[in-house]
Specification:
The complex is a heterodimer. By secondary structure, chain A is an alpha+beta fold. Chain A has five helices and five strands. In chain A, helix 1 packs antiparallel against helix 2. By secondary structure, chain B is α/β, with parallel strands linked by helices. In chain B, 45% of the residues lie in helices and 24% in strands. A five-stranded mixed sheet of chain B has the order 1-2-3-4-5, with helices on both faces. In chain B, helix 1 links the parallel strand 2 and strand 3. The mean pLDDT of chain B is 94. The chains are: A alpha+beta, B alpha/beta. The interface between A and B is medium-sized, with 23 and 20 residues.
Chain lengths: 150, 120
């Protein structure tokens, strides 16, 4: 297996959009991320962010049906962790509104705080989505120690 | 997620063991509701979070829902007992700490309720 240029390591997984799989996804990504010089606190932050992105896919993407959630994580040659969480679900009409705290498209109790945690805990969060075309969330984070060291 | 409940005076103390996320939030919600329904005397909810290594917004939402219930239906208070650092940070970032007290010991929790100090 050849890795693309600029990618030092890569893992990918896919699973049905079931709540039971959220813990597996966040734990697997955190273990993969520990190859970089993240502190335990940073690994906890990565777990929360991945948990939010995957939970969003499980809750929102397919309504009450079960679809596929794909999670891919890479470590770049520059020593950054990049995680993609993708679904082929209904997509988000207005990403800007969806990212605002307190907003949620279903009357459950999650308060729409998911993006707040992702943005607080990661260096970068991108959301690519269109109605009917699924959603892809990109999460980026580099170890703070590495940044300080330059 | 393992859950146990016991009553001390007007307080229900719920001990949680495990991760509080999308997968476990429903069971937590159902468990607390059932325990509250079993006793009209209970006004306050003390959540023993010492053995909870992880929480995310689904867990925060489930706790907020229980806060609303005890506040609206019983004029009670919610106290978080002993959250670990990562959990404490999530609770702080979510704003939940504005409506509940965070304490380190059960004694501290019960003393707060006795004093009647209200978290604004």
């Amino acid at each position: 297996m050849t890795l693309p240029d600029g990618i030092a390591n890569r893992v990918a997984m896919e699973f049905p959009s079931k709540a039971e799989n959220v813990a597996f996804a966040r734990t697997a990504v955190a273990v993969f991320a520990s190859q970089l010089d993240f502190t335990l606190e940073e690994l906890d932050e990565i777990k929360v962010a991945v948990s939010e992105a995957v939970s969003n896919a499980v809750i929102h993407a397919y309504g009450d049906a079960v679809g596929t959630v794909r999670v891919e994580a890479v470590i770049t040659a520059e020593g950054e962790l990049v995680v993609w969480v993708r679904d082929d679900g209904r997509g988000i009409e207005d990403v800007g509104t969806a990212r605002q705290a307190q907003w949620t498209s279903r009357p459950e109790e999650r308060m729409g705080l998911g993006f707040t945690f992702m943005e607080e805990y990661m260096d970068g969060v991108e959301v690519d989505s269109a109605p009917g075309a699924g959603t892809r969330v990109t999460l980026r984070k580099a170890p703070a120690r590495a940044r300080v060291a330059g | 997620m393992h859950m146990e409940a016991r009553r001390v005076g007007e307080s229900l103390i719920v001990r949680l063991k495990g991760e509080l996320d999308l997968n476990t939030a429903e069971a937590f919600k159902a468990f607390v509701r059932e325990e509250l329904a079993a006793s009209r005397r209970v006004r306050h909810l003390i959540l023993d979070l010492r053995a909870v290594p992880f929480i995310d917004s689904s867990g925060v939402g489930a706790i907020l829902g229980r806060y609303r219930e005890i506040k609206e239906e019983r004029a009670g208070r919610l106290i978080a007992w002993g959250p670990r650092q990562p959990v404490r940070r999530v609770l702080a970032l979510s704003g939940l700490v504005r409506v509940m007290d965070v304490v380190d010991t059960q004694q501290e929790a019960l003393a707060l309720l006795k004093e009647g100090n209200r978290n604004p």
